[in-house]
Amino acid sequence: MAFIVYALGLLQIMFVYLCSNVLCKCVRLSGNENLHDLTTNNGLNFALRIELTDNFGLSLYADYEYFAVQDEGSKYLLTLGLPMNTSDSFGKCNGMMFSTIDNDNDPLTSANCAQINSGGWWYWGCSFCKLMAGYGPNYSSLRRISWRTWPRSNVYFGYAAMMLRRNVSG
């Protein structure tokens, strides 16, 4: 069984292979091109889990039945399957292209969400859902991780992770 963690804030992917509950191998890669290669070029199909924990210790997760990132020519278009639970904020980002400070691909014509938030993401709205952001109390609310469907307001997140799991059927 393989678990793949996209380490937020570091733009790295960590592959962790578990063999009979013993850690066997760990490899780190960087960038969206590697996400593209992993999720579209190898004949495998991946589900996505996003885990978040706020400053009060509340932890929630959101599962998506499918996750893929297209190539640079499509501006790393995000493809998500249906959400598997009610903690969905990332679903709005389905079909969005990846925006960066110098490459505005979000649907807003009046602003570049990546500039406003100081980081790249598949923005649907500048603050609806963003995980590539600062975490903890030392960041302004505009520069923090945000998850619009979170059950509390005025929180900051101390933990966020995106994890891929190979779909058995895929």
Describe this structure in words.
The protein has 170 residues and is mainly beta. It has one domain (2-166): Gamma Fibrinogen, chain A, domain 1 (Gamma Fibrinogen, Chain A, domain 1, Alpha-Beta Complex). It contains two helices and ten strands, in the order βββαββββαβββ. It has helices at 32-40, 113-117, and strands spanning 2-7, 12-19, 22-30, 46-54, 59-64, 67-69, 78-80, 129-130, 146-147, 157-166. It has a six-stranded antiparallel sheet, with helices on one face. Strands 6-7 form a two-stranded antiparallel ribbon.
User: How many H/I helices?
Assistant: 2
Instruction: Supply the CATH architecture.
Output: Alpha-Beta Complex
CATH T-level topology: Gamma Fibrinogen, Chain A, domain 1
**What is the number of E strands?**
10
Q: What is the class in the CATH system? A: Alpha Beta
Overall pLDDT metric: 77
Determine the strand fraction and express it as a percent band.
Answer: 25-35%
The secondary-structure element order is EEEHEEEEHEEE
The tally of structural domains comes to 1
**Main sheet summary:** 6 strands, antiparallel
- At the fourth level of CATH, the homologous superfamily is Gamma Fibrinogen, chain A, domain 1
Q: Per the principal axes of the C-alpha atoms, what is the gross shape?
A: globular
Q: Which structural category do the helix and sheet elements fall into?
A: mainly beta
- Rg over C-alpha atoms, rounded to the nearest angstrom: 16 Å
Question: How far apart lie the N and C ends?
Answer: 14 Å
* Low-confidence runs: 1-29
The helix content, as a percent range, equals under 10%
The neighbouring-strand order within the major sheet is 3-2-1-10-4-5
